[in-house]
Amino acid sequence: MAGLDKRVASYQEALDGITDNMTVLAGGFGLCGIPENLIDEIRRRGVRGLTVVSNNCGVDGFGLGRLLETHQVSNVVASYVGENALFEQQVLNGSLAVELTPQGTLAEKIRAGGAGIPAFYTATGYGTPVAEGKEVREFDGRHYVMERAITGDFAIVKGWKADWYGNVIYRHTARNFNPLMASAGRITVVEVEEIVAPGELDPNAIHTPGIYVDRLIQGQFEKRIEQRTLRA
């Protein structure tokens, strides 16, 4: 049973093996459910030339935005990038490449990668710049664009609760892209708020089965609010 224990003792151990020019899949949506401590460990390590796949790229000074500050990211695959001024600057000066992808297509590309499906067809993006250079086929009188699946060298994921074996539960909207990313990483690292003993989680409540998880660590989280809206 000891061999099934996915817990690691430090963030250094959690990201052991990450090197320059790797592809990193990062869970989260905006600042909700982001693996903030794993991101900080990547920054501390100073690895460079990373391709980051995420719904967005954090904000200035927090989340994945911290990796932009240190110029560790060379390519971003995302569906939304509008909350980061530094991101805009680096794209405009040519130091950062971005592949904007429709949000549903991005989710399906990652899901397909985790399922071992190399490509799929979608009508989304046909007739727009999204489809440029991609194979197009017609099915039942409608045109579809072929999209390649996405996998990564590392997947960094934020969960709410997990057991020693890496079975993970996400909380409410913090679930977002995290289960997809967890399935598509060659090495999947999950940080959670609480780790419990085996048998304490309801099997019917598990969102990511432990078979997808390689390393597990418990952390402390800031949980910033990205856009605070108050009633007048």
TrEMBL record:
Q: Which UniProt keywords apply?
A: Transferase
Q: Name the Pfam families for this protein.
A: CoA_trans
What the entry lists under PROSITE patterns is as follows: COA_TRANSF_1
Q: Which GO terms describe its molecular function?
A: CoA-transferase activity
State whether keyword Transferase applies.
yes
Q: Which family does it belong to?
A: Belongs to the 3-oxoacid CoA-transferase subunit A family.
Name of the featured protein:
CoA transferase subunit A
Source species of the chain: Jejubacter calystegiae
